[in-house]
Design goal:
61% helix
Length: 157
């Protein structure tokens, strides 16, 4: 996960402009600095939103044991509700409504990316044709471009 712990986050009066390197640090210790910034940013709405986004992306980045994705989403929903960021609270409501479908898509690895890619190619073929005389000519162009057909042309190049 993007953060080490799932915990409720509290609001703070720390501004992002107040987070500075120590004045004596020429070459900062990067892991220590990253840890310090992470702790301070987790209490800010911007940092909290980034953390929640990364935790949600971890759902697709990490390999989950059986039931792990379900547990990951449940913990994320709890953290997002506690954040009181309106966009994430609204998103958690959608996650709760479509929870089973989301889990099925993650566990089965189902995606509509192939269909969306094919749809984009068909739209490009249609736009390149500047309008076709009939549906048959558009269908023929789709088969010619996407059907795997490689006819030999009567002329040599």
């Amino acid at each position: 996960m993007a953060t080490a712990a799932w915990k409720p986050y509290a609001s703070s009066n720390v501004r992002l402009s107040d987070i500075r390197l120590p004045s004596h640090a020429r070459r900062p210790n990067r892991p220590a600095l990253a840890h310090r910034l992470t702790e301070e940013l987790e209490t800010e709405p911007v940092g909290l939103a980034w953390t929640l986004k990364e935790q949600l992306r971890d759902l697709y980045r990490l390999e989950h044991p059986p039931g792990g994705a379900r547990q990951h989403i449940r913990r994320w929903i709890t953290a997002a509700k506690r954040s009181r960021i309106n966009a994430f609270v609204a998103l958690t409501k959608r996650f709760e409504v479509y929870f089973d479908a989301i889990i099925a898509a993650i566990e089965l690895g189902i995606s509509n990316a192939l269909i969306e890619g094919t749809n984009a190619k068909i739209r490009l073929i249609n736009a390149r044709g500047y309008g076709h005389h009939s549906a048959q000519t558009l269908t023929s162009m789709i088969y010619l471009n996407l059907g795997g057909l490689h006819p030999t042309l009567p002329m040599q190049t």
